[in-house]
UniProtKB/TrEMBL annotation:
Main location: cytoplasm
Any GO CC annotation of this UniProt entry: cytoplasm
Family named by the database record: Belongs to the Maf family.
Record's protein name: Nucleoside triphosphate pyrophosphatase
Length: 205
């Protein structure tokens, strides 16, 4: 029996955290950034916004001639707090206000996922949700964290795998989703496309 040819996998995201999680799972995606204007995308709810952004990013990359035949994964995350979608803070002042609003409370990290099969000319998508319970960092700790610059580059102004980890008391759901991509959801979406995730394992990983 002839083995299936190995499918190219493209990550339509510049997130090093997403790339790292996929590599840890035995995959070896190439990275092509979509360039989508995130501020131009709107939706009624945070979960729908995350999904719309993921679909937009995956669709833009999937349309490129050089990726035809490949599988393209697009993701986007927002933190839902008080019904509002919070992405990356615009500046240090916003990051500080965000943390003061989040401490001692819980929010829901919504990550939209979209996978295009450019060979079959179809895509599937879904959103993963994880509840995040924030601790109560002091004003001094918040100031130090914001000064590190890290919260300016991540949705919700925090991450589980960085300097803000001590300020997060716990989560309910998939931890990878909070970092940037839900591997169980990726597996289910690939299955909808007729692709087994083990078929994408890289022999070099």
């Amino acid at each position: 029996m002839t083995a299936k040819p190995h499918r190219r996998l493209i990550l339509a995201s510049q997130s090093p955290a997403r790339l790292g999680l996929l590599r840890q799972a035995g995959l070896a995606p190439e990275v092509i950034v979509s360039g989508v204007d995130e501020d131009a995308v709107t939706a009624p709810t945070p979960a729908e916004l995350a999904l719309a952004l993921a679909e937009a990013k995956a669709s833009v990359v999937a349309a490129k001639p050089e990726v035809q035949g490949a599988l393209v994964i697009g993701c986007d995350s927002v933190l839902e707090l008080d019904g509002q979608a919070l992405g990356k803070p615009a500046d240090a002042e916003e990051a500080t206000a965000r943390w003061k609003a989040m401490r001692g409370r819980a929010g829901t990290l919504q990550t939209g996922h979209c996978i295009w099969d450019t060979a079959a000319k179809r895509y599937v998508s879904g959103t993963a949700s994880t509840v995040v319970r924030f601790g109560e960092p002091s004003d001094q700790e918040i100031a130090a964290y914001v000064a590190s610059g890290e919260p300016l580059y991540v949705a919700g102004a925090f991450t589980l795998d960085g300097r803000s980890a001590p300020f997060i008391e716990g989560i309910e759901g998939d931890h990878g989703n909070v970092i940037g991509i839900s591997l169980p959801l990726v597996r289910r979406l690939l299955a909808e496309l007729g692709v087994g995730i083990t078929e994408l394992w890289s022999p070099d990983r």
